[in-house]
Write a structure and sequence with these properties.
This protein is an alpha+beta fold. 42% of the residues lie in helices and 26% in strands. It has 15 helices and 16 strands.
Length: 448
């Protein structure tokens, strides 16, 4: 058993060499003794600490709570207490501490002094504060980002949803808390309305691959029975052992964007069509002809070009008027385009002149030209001023890409064939190859 002297020495050694601050404080609040650790912690000397009440070194906001605990010790209501308390260091800095206090009584049971153990927890408090601020920032970010944020546990249950998620999904978070990622209420489908296998849903893919997934597009049914198009990014969250314990999902509402894009596509398609169609007749215009002619040429496959003029169209306009002339152009274009179908493409080349591009050699082009000439003659738009007969007719020139070295040569060859058809009395089809062979006859022709 230790002697009283040995006990005293042991206490002094424990007091002076303790790694935590220790102070003996009398019932008046003055420091009786302080160890070097406490002196270093606060930046005060032994003398500085002993000549002032300990409250002087304490943060004013913590003194009341500390005194209440001391009074409870004195009354015997508690045997010790522990609290987080702030002190003011000599340099004015705040020191966060964990304070443990017990009371020593004399032989009569009266309070003699208090023993306070003071542990520096400033770094821990700074970390806690930093963590709390970070959590607050993250909470604000999650609630203000323009995307729905949901957190799913490892079973796929929705355990958190921000306000934007409520808005996008159209379901209050209290109801979402009882739902799973594949709840039938979401009516999840693909863009084209097909059901999506559960294994292809973002949550399932993340759980299966343990990798994030991005830009998965789904369609959800809203409360009004409409469709809401969403893009989902999902990523796994792991525990300290690397196992997935949650999946974080970010949901972006694409509905208005997709609808706007669809409208824009329709408008662009309409504008494109308008830019490629002749405003009067509705058939393809000269601009599109130039584009298509270049494409035909670049294929390096045989194709034919047909050019035709309505015969004696100026006298027709002079006699019947420009409105009747416009009507005749429209009737001619619509009738011949319907006949052609997939045989080729009809273009308004300019004024009363039209062009046709088609795959095939010159003989095939000449056959189509004859079909168009015959159909126009049978349509018989009255033309009492026409020298070629009582009906509106046309003269056709045909040429093949096989007989031309350039696009310009092809067009020139076809023009020459057209001029030949006109020179032969009009209402006739003439081909470029026949001209080059010295044949003065037309491919076909007739007079009403």
């Amino acid at each position: 058993m230790l002697s009283s002297e040995d006990g005293r020495l042991l206490f002094e050694q424990a007091f002076y060499y303790s790694a935590v601050g220790v102070a003996l404080v009398n019932t008046e609040g003055y420091v009786l003794m302080s160890n070097p650790a406490l002196q270093q912690m606060l930046g005060y000397t032994k003398e500085d600490l002993e000549k002032n009440p300990f409250d002087v070194f304490s943060h004013p906001e913590d003194n009341k709570h500390d005194r209440e605990n001391l009074e409870s010790l004195i009354r015997g209501e508690i045997h010790f207490y522990q609290m987080e308390k702030r002190y003011i260091k000599k340099n004015g800095a705040i020191l966060w501490t964990l304070l443990n206090v017990t009371m020593v009584k004399d032989e009569a049971g009266l309070p003699q002094y208090f023993i306070g153990q003071i542990q520096d927890i400033t770094e821990r408090k700074q970390y806690e504060r930093s963590t709390m601020e970070t959590q607050q920032y993250l909470a604000k970010i999650i609630e203000t980002v323009p995307a729905g944020i949901t957190l799913l546990d490892e079973e796929g249950n929705i355990v958190f949803a921000n306000k934007m998620a409520e808005q996008i999904l159209g379901i209050h978070k209290s109801a979402l808390a009882s739902m799973k990622y594949n709840d039938p209420g979401f009516s999840i489908t693909s863009i084209d309305g097909n059901a999506i296998p559960e294994k292809e849903l973002p949550f399932s893919r993340v759980m299966e691959t343990e990798e994030p997934v991005e830009d998965v597009t789904h369609v959800l049914a809203d409360e009004q029975g409409g469709r809401r198009i969403v893009s989902i990014n999902a990523a796994p969250l792991t525990d300290e052992h690397g196992g997935i314990n949650a999946v974080l999902c970010a949901i972006t509402d694409l509905t208005s964007t997709v609808r706007t894009e669809e409208k824009l596509r329709r408008v662009n398609k309409k504008l494109k069509r308008l830019s490629e169609r002749d405003g009067l007749t509705g058939v393809a215009n000269r601009r599109l002809f130039d584009v298509q002619l270049q494409k035909y040429w670049e294929t390096e496959e045989a194709f034919s070009l047909i050019l035709f003029d309505l015969d004696y169209f100026k006298p027709y306009n002079d006699h019947f008027g420009h409105q009747a002339g416009d009507d005749a152009l429209k009737m001619t274009a619509q009738t011949l385009e319907n006949i052609m179908q997939s045989s080729g493409t009809l273009f308004r080349y300019g004024g009363e002149e039209f062009a046709v591009l088609m795959n095939g050699v010159e003989e095939e082009g000449a056959a189509l030209a004859e079909q168009l000439r015959t159909e126009l003659q049978q349509l018989c738009i009255p033309h009492h001023q026409g020298a070629a007969g009582p009906c509106l007719t046309a003269s056709f020139g045909v040429s093949s890409s096989l007989d031309a070295g350039t696009i310009d040569e092809l067009v020139d060859n076809t023009d020459q064939a057209l001029y030949k058809a006109k020179a032969m009395g009009r209402n006739t089809v003439a081909s470029s190859r026949m001209l080059k062979s010295g044949d003065s006859g037309a491919v076909s022709g007739g007079k009403a």
